[in-house]
Design goal:
The chain is of the alpha+beta class. The protein has 2 helices and 5 strands; from the N terminus they run ββββααβ. The protein is globular, with a radius of gyration of 11 Å.
Length: 69
């Protein structure tokens, strides 16, 4: 999956697979997580958020099934 680098104190890069609605987040510590069934609108909102980390914590973590890969 291709990810886009973002400016964040915690997140390195973010990617998305439209066909399977998988959001991939790579953190600065090197860990990578997949979040499942994330709609494209949520992904777009994350990418346009003033704070990617704050949006992730408020709108994605705890709301979508995830797996560390």
């Amino acid at each position: 999956m291709q990810r886009v680098k973002v400016s964040s104190s915690n997140i390195d890069s973010i990617g998305y697979i439209t066909e399977s609605s998988i959001l991939e987040v790579k953190f600065l510590n090197g860990s990578i997580y997949h979040y499942y069934s994330v709609g494209v609108g949520v992904f777009n909102s994350l990418m346009n958020a003033g704070s990617h980390g704050r949006f992730l914590n408020s709108h994605i973590k705890g709301k979508y099934r995830y797996k560390r890969v």
